[in-house]
Write a structure and sequence with these properties.
Length: 123
């Protein structure tokens, strides 16, 4: 089992880096507890990544408005979870900005996350 975990921890990042579509994805499942500490941590990670990409230090996490999770598999084994979150942020000028973010988290190494995609929501 340990050998498999090592293999997955090497292959999944490689697949992601190379853009190889060797995984299958399950359906998106609604996250009912948006205040779960894990969901909040994932949302805060997304905001920190957004700050690196589009607004250096300019966004502050405010809330998770909606959320879904999706299990990913490699060779029939669950390898990662995707989290699609609609989040609200505040800019330094106090303006509110909402984003849809997708964060990938490796199942066997919860300290590895990657911001897969993001888009600003205009509501």
């Amino acid at each position: 089992m340990v050998r498999f975990q090592v293999l997955v921890s090497i292959l999944v990042p490689l697949v992601l880096l190379l853009g190889i579509s060797a995984t299958t994805e399950g359906p998106w499942i609604t996250i009912h507890d948006l205040n779960d500490p894990r969901v909040i941590d994932i949302a805060k990670f997304a905001v920190s990544e957004l700050n690196k990409k589009i607004s250096p230090g300019g966004l502050e996490f405010k809330s998770v408005d909606q959320g879904w999770s999706q299990l990913g598999r490699i060779g029939g084994f669950i390898s990662h979870t995707n989290f699609k979150l609609d989040i609200t942020t505040l800019r330094q000028d106090a303006s509110v900005h909402k984003y849809e973010v997708i964060v990938l988290e490796l199942t066997d190494a919860r300290n590895f996350m990657s911001l897969s995609s993001y888009k600003e929501l205009h509501v």
